[in-house]
Amino acid sequence: MRVLLASPESYVWSTRKHIPLGLGYLASVLREHGHAVAIYDAAIEDEQLETVVRRGGYELLGITAPTPLILDAWKMAKEGKRLGMTTVLGGPHMTLLPEESLGPEHPEVDYAIKGEAEESIIEFVDALEGRGSLEDVHGLYWRRNGEIVVNQPSRLVPNLDNIAYPAHDLYKITRYTNLQPLTDGLQRNARAYTIVTSRGCPYKCTYCSKPITGNTWRPRSVANVIGEWRWLVKDLRATEIGLTDDIWNLKLDRAKDLCRALIDNGLNTVPWVTIHGMKVNHADAELFQLMKAAGCKRVGFGVESGDPQILRDVIKKGQTLDMVRNAFRWAHAAGLQTMGFFIFGMPHETEETMEKTIRFALELDPDLATFMLATPYPGTELYREIKQAGQVFADSWEDFAIYQDKPLFSLPDYDPDVVVRKWRDAYRRFYLYRPKRVWQKVSQKSFWTELPSTVANARRFFIPAKRASS
């Protein structure tokens, strides 16, 4: 079968473009089984979907989308149906709410796959081509006589080494400017690839949605990771690599072994970064020294809060402030750039707790700091608490974008206006009120070459929004 795997264009991540790595995994298993497959990422394409479909003769359109992009995924599915294609949706939002996309409002969606799909996509295509039955496709949601049929759940692949490397060669890599929404790449216009060395995270942070992997953690072997890394560096000429694991250093010895293997195999010449926040309670000084020697340039940490009670009882992060301090100290000592992620407006937050977070960020002084407003994603403990005791303000799934600059919920004894004020205060005090930070920004070439985006972000972060007149 001729399959086109697609990702809709994002209008909620500003101008940042990042590789849809999950589609690369699906493309690789489809290709292994003899199917013709291509990837269409609307964020970087210069051709319309219709042009690509008609030229390639594609029959099946597989679309992935996180929650904020599901409306765009439905629009893409409509276009696919207009072109005579069979449509199937998957990804994080589909795993959370599969029935939504098969309701009467969405006739453009023929099928939905819930969960990890490397096995399911092959079963599904086989069924479409008459070599199997739709009833036997794991994780499939579909319609029969107007009713939604729910198949047996999809299965997590127990040994990730058995999955082929993502089809990195199908990405139009020179069109990607950044590694992912929250992180600028080390170089603009780099050949920046991403790699995942493990899947899942056993921790249960209340804001985190893990619809596909749940609380499991499955590592790839070091040898398997090195094989893919070598392909990226030697054959695909990567100039930058981003580790996109949820928690790549859960097993400290494994993380160190991976660094040593990168050094031993001469793969430490290409810079790499940890895109998602490392767990500070699974690190030591030696790890950061090894990461530096292995080519790492920047590490990110999920700090979240500077208030111990919020961190322990509300976020349930499983780390202490002293653990965070140690991780930053070790990273700085190793000569690594650091990035901190901070959340404002969790339940039970007050002006005092958020002030502690700002002061903690200033104390840690990461090279990059990202301050985010708490977002109640469906499937999280945070979402369940707010639905039970408060109110969600979102009018559309697009409102669940990570870079929103407005409060998304209210609770008793919780002031959303104070949350947004302290969030803006954090950006002002970290970036604007310190001469060193101002100079770092204005001395970068990107500050001037991307001036419209710079001005837009400055207005968003630093200038209070005007209240609508009543």
Quick synopsis:
With 470 residues, the chain is of the alpha/beta class. The protein contains 17 helices and 17 strands.
Percent of residues in helices: 25-40%
Count of the domains: 2
Strand order of the largest sheet: 2-1-3-4-5-6-7
Q: At the fourth CATH level, what is the homologous superfamily of the largest domain?
A: tm_1862 like domain
Oligomerization category of the chains in this entry: single chain
What is the 3D form? globular
Describe the main β-sheet briefly.
7 strands, mixed
Mean pLDDT: 89
Low-confidence stretches: none
Q: What's the CATH class of the largest domain, please? A: Alpha Beta
Can you put this structure into words, describing what you see?
This protein has 470 residues and is of the alpha/beta class. The chain folds into 2 domains: 2-150, Cobalamin-binding domain (Rossmann fold); 177-462, Alpha-Beta Horseshoe (pyruvate-formate lyase- activating enzyme), CATH 3.80.30. It contains 17 helices and 17 strands. The strands form 4 sheets. It has a 7-stranded mixed β-sheet, with helices on both faces. The protein is globular and about 60 Å long. The N and C termini lie far apart (58 Å).
Sequence-ordered SSE layout with sheet pairings:
Layout: E1 2-7, H1 21-32, E2 36-41, H2 49-56, E3 60-64, H3 70-82, E4 86-90, H4 92-96, H5 98-101, E5 111-113, H6 118-128, E6 140-144, E7 147-150, E8 192-195, E9 198-200, E10 217-219, H7 222-235, E11 240-243, H8 252-264, E12 272-274, H9 285-293, E13 296-304, H10 308-315, H11 321-333, E14 337-344, H12 351-364, E15 368-373, H13 381-389, E16 391-392, E17 409-410, H14 416-432, H15 435-442, H16 445-449, H17 451-462
Parallel strand pairs: 1-2, 1-3, 3-4, 4-5, 8-11, 11-12, 12-13, 13-14, 14-15
Antiparallel strand pairs: 5-6, 6-7, 9-10, 16-17
